[in-house]
Task: structure prediction
Amino acid sequence: MNLSARWIAFMLSLFITVLTVVFLNFVPGTTAEMLIITGSSCFLATYFASYYTIDVLVFQEVEQIYKSVKKLKIKDFNIKKKSLFNSQNPLKLLNTEISDYVTEKQKEIEELKRMETFRREFLADVSHELKTPIFAAQGFVHTLLDGAKNDPEVANRFLKKAAKSLDGLDALVRDLVVLSQVETGELKMQFEILDLVKVTKDIFEQLEDKAEKRGTKLRLKPSKIEDCHVVADPQRIYQVLTNFIDNAIKYGNDNGKVTVIFEEQKKHFTIAVEDDGPGIPKEHMNRIFERFYRVDKSRSRETGGTGLGLAIVKHILSAHNSSVSVTSKPGKGTRFSFTLLKAD
Ligand SMILES: Nc1ncnc2c1ncn2[C@@H]1O[C@H](COP(=O)(O)OP(=O)(O)OP(=O)(O)O)[C@@H](O)[C@H]1O
Ligand SMILES: [Mg+2]
Result:
């Protein structure tokens, strides 16, 4: 029920009028005329007096609250003074507006807190990741300066190690730049029609040495597929597929098999990268897309991984309105897949 000032005043005056008329009725000598005149004047007087009192009290309070809120210069508190004072129930309106505003602010505060924790953790992770290759390179250079440079063979070995650490540092910084660009939306996707079979063959060629060292066989499925035209950003999709194939080689078994599978649907192509490696334990599955997350940190560092690959991939695919699906069976292998719009 809407308890407006008018309605309360009406109920109150009706109640008092009925009460007065009933009592007056018991007074000897009271005529019907007297009852009508007393009743109506009592009703009118009570009605206007109570209406005016409620109105003044309520509006004074509302005005006070309104002024306090306005003093806070809250931009998103957009209730107009006019609509508030013309409303049947200004207190209710004000209350709804304030509680909506508080809920909204509460959400913002929680988001800010989450971002703050995230930023702190990210900074700690970045410093830790940067420290490792810098310290390693620094160690090698100092050892060289301390005399190792006099032995050409040792000097060569140490320089190679220092160079490897610096290459790792370079890859890490480059990944961080790409990640921050995709996250802030600075990196705009350049959509074009491209042939994913050709892209995959190029990546196979690029990673041939790496695969050969582990005895990994790189395959396409269907093996005789000629082309697969999709709409995507060529450079970014190259990066996505490179990371999936590189991961499959790195984290797969020696003498294993890595297959890139193309499945055609009505409007999309599903592209999957499958390996027959040890798989990803279930408890790590949800976390592998987090920055710097690696299932086996020591193994990953050995293979030169920064743990940023899948975080970048996730952002790139989301900019393509796609997402990554991953299934993994321990001991059997892992399959990463995503869909892309078919070019017509
Ligand atoms: N095919 C796979 N089989 C098993 N584990 C995998 C596979 N792909 C990814 N992972 C796990 O997920 C982690 C995250 O992968 P991601 O590509 O983000 O990082 P990375 O390969 O270690 O480093 P980067 O890609 O930056 O070189 C890896 O460290 C690995 O533990
Ligand atoms: Mg990777």
Notes: The mean pLDDT is 89.
